[in-house]
User: What shape does this take?
Amino acid sequence: MMTRQECEATLLAHLPWIQRAMMAACRRGGGANGSGVDPDDFVSWATLQLIEDDYAVLRRFRGDSAVRTYLTAVIAMLHREYRVRCWGRWRPSAAARRRGPVAVRLETLVHRDRLPLRQAMHLLRTHGETTLGERELVDLYGALPRRVVALPRELARLTVDAVEGDGADVLVAAAEADGERRRLAESLAAALAALSPDEQELLRLHFWDGLTVAEAARRLGVPQKPLYRRIERALATLRRRLQADGVTRGTVAALGDQEAA
Assistant: This one.
């Protein structure tokens, strides 16, 4: 098992290759063609996953293969996790499955990856997945059920659902949840205030404004590589201060479950 210092050195030494491999995973998954996974966002998120919990992913490397072979498998797993995180698990309709692989692929490209129908048909033909003509593909698509694609989970969290019913239990639970959210917001504000101005700006750009690490580096006029370590340190500081204030992952998860209920 690698030490923490070895993990950090391995990540920095392989970082350019890692980010190219992540971009390639997006291209293979259709990300470069406008699907649900934005390549730059995925690279930023996945790189942070490699750093998270004191390089836990890298510390699991046992040396049974080359480092790049191991990382290739890790990146593929992270890409699948990120797609699920953003868009939920995708399952083709029963109607598409009955009509075969071409129907499943066409439905996936249009309804999951949100490609225009003409572009989806073009991909199927140019990739050799079908010999059907355009008219036949249009008819095939017309036979499939219309599907509503859910909002990405990151956006769905920002929506507010109306509370059904006005029973006392519902109102009490909602009031308690609101109080807990306010306490969480106050704890987070205090923890953020304890960070340096540079750390606050970095976290604001990345998490609040939604900039990738590369975009944040350009905005701040600093090299990109050191920012991953700075984000890791800032998040570790936030985590310690929130835990000291009684805020745990369970608290946040419970609030999220209440919002989703």
User: Anything to note?
Assistant: Confidence is low (pLDDT under 50) at residues 31-35, 149-177, 251-261. The first helix runs from residue 4 to 28.
